[in-house]
Design goal:
Aspartate Aminotransferase, domain 1, 3-stranded antiparallel sheet, alpha/beta, single chain
Length: 482
């Protein structure tokens, strides 16, 4: 389904669930929000959740669980080794993906660590449709480098291309020719490319990549963390997938892949992750690393209760009326902002609504972190916590210069089955107000800058007193309202 058309003519997504447990939220005054973001070093990651109204930082580990998932957690087998919980999860993964070997890990980046240590050597090249922050760091720490082979359409903010996450086939062939297949341990594809707006790849593109990998004897590795969104987009946007079930699409993707890994904080709506394969030789290279870095092979650093929840969550991911909830609400938010002239990434992707900071605050130089500044401004104006996905999320070049990002985005994630329509409309309203007053926003500069993954815990300061001016304008326009 694509939502329901109201009598007014507006198409509105419907929640395909009912609320049975609630969690209290706080909406603190705008002055308190300014103080909170200052104490957090203008880094939304460092905000205390008690000071956040709508937490749109991420959908990782914060999607709502179903009643069946919560019930399943009560039957978990706590055995250190040989837990029945593990075998239930293993069987479900084999049922869905057709893979007979499964290594549990505590989350997606743990899988990346194992894959990198098992397969990457100094000087290796990893082609991918787009990098993710932790993926790139693990590859670089193990002596490899990332080669991004995205299509030209991928980094266009405004587009009608339904599959901006596709890999450029000609670039892949050129990369293999230039480096040689022996220097490419695997090609990595990311479902629902995180850093460019949650954009999917097509089944046809994936088939072409798989065929090339097989021809050259290169493994194809899939980051399936955002697979649920990608499955939904394949189903509704790709003609040949419209008559396929979600399970059929999933199995075809899996059959084309050598290794699948995922964060269950996204895929499965719980907290954990894992690596799936039918490649026995590759599995042997990874096997000894699981107990070394994670835990024994039948729990891999995960709580068995979470493993029971993942088993049910993966099964529920095969339901179109579950996996459509994120994309439909994101599409609604994108359309509402677009109507008001706010620059957003189109077409709407998965994971969240992505605002184009480069256009929103086009007066801020890229080395003053426009996406980071906009994320801080959105929090002050609304209490909504989003995430910077731009130059702050890169790391400096070896000579100390900035690695300017291809895009400067603020991601407003919409965790599945968490927010109501009125909350989405509130966020839209405050962002529209901020856009009308965007010239008040100025840049940021680092005062504490870690060398690796600085966006997680680096601290920044405003380049001027622009935040005080923003608070004053808020009070002028909204009076005593929060």
């Amino acid at each position: 389904m694509s939502g329901v058309t109201f009598h007014s003519g507006e198409n509105v997504p419907l929640e395909m669930h009912k609320v049975r447990i609630v969690q209290k939220l706080n909406l603190i005054a705008v002055e308190e929000r300014q103080k909170a973001i200052a104490e957090a070093g203008n880094n939304t990651f460092l905000l205390r959740n008690r000071d956040v109204y709508l937490d749109m930082l991420t959908d990782s580990g914060v999607n709502a669980m179903s009643d069946k998932q919560l019930a399943a957690m009560m039957i978990a087998d706590d055995s250190y080794a040989g837990s029945e919980t593990y075998y239930r999860l293993e069987a479900k993964i084999e049922e869905i993906f057709g893979t007979k070997i499964f290594f549990p890990a505590h989350q997606g980046r743990a899988c990346e660590n194992i894959l990198s240590k098992a397969f990457i050597k100094e000087g290796d090249v990893i082609p991918m449709n787009y990098h993710f922050t932790t993926t790139k760091s693990h590859i670089m720490l193990n002596g490899g480098r990332v080669e991004e082979l995205f299509t030209d359409e991928a980094i266009k903010i405004t587009s009608d291309n339904p599959f901006k996450g596709n890999m450029d086939i000609d670039k892949l062939l050129a990369c293999i020719k230039e480096n040689g297949p022996d220097r490419i341990p695997f090609v990595r594809m990311e479902a629902g490319t995180n850093l460019i707006g949650g954009q999917p790849f097509s089944l046809e593109n994936y088939r072409q990549i798989s065929k090339i990998c097989k021809e050259y004897g290169i493994m194809l590795v899939l980051d399936a963390s955002l697979l649920a969104d990608n499955l939904y987009f394949m189903k509704v946007r790709e003609d040949e997938c419209k008559d396929m079930s979600i399970r059929q699409i999933t199995r075809e993707i899996s059959d084309l892949t050598d290794i699948i890994y995922f964060s269950a904080r996204k895929l499965g709506c719980a907290r954990g992750g894992g690596i799936c394969t039918n490649n026995a030789e590759a599995a042997e290279k990874m096997k000894e690393l699981v107990p070394l870095y994670e835990g024994f092979l039948t729990y891999g650093g995960m709580s068995v209760r979470e493993m029971e929840a993942i088993t049910i969550g993966l099964d529920e991911t095969m339901d179109i009326n579950m996996i459509n909830q994120g994309p439909l609400f994101i599409e609604y938010m994108v359309e509402q902002l677009e109507k008001k002239g706010v620059p957003v990434v189109t077409p709407a992707g998965g994971l969240g609504c992505h605002i184009d900071a480069m256009a929103f605050v086009d007066h801020i130089a890229q080395d003053q972190y426009p996406a980071g500044a906009l994320a801080a401004a959105i929090y002050i104006a609304s209490g909504v916590r989003g995430m910077e996905r731009g130059t702050m999320s890169e790391q400096r070049n070896e000579d100390g210069s900035e690695q300017l990002s291809n895009m400067e985005l603020v991601r407003l994630a919409l965790p599945r089955r968490v927010f109501t329509m009125s909350q989405v409309k509130y966020a839209v309203d405050r962002i529209v107000w901020l856009y009308e007053n965007r010239k008040l926003i100025e840049g940021l500069t680092f005062v504490e800058e870690p060398k690796i993954l600085r966006f997680f815990f680096g601290r920044l300061a405003p380049v001027s007193n622009w935040q005080e001016k923003l608070v004053a304008k808020f009070r002028e326009d909204f009076g005593d309202s929060l």
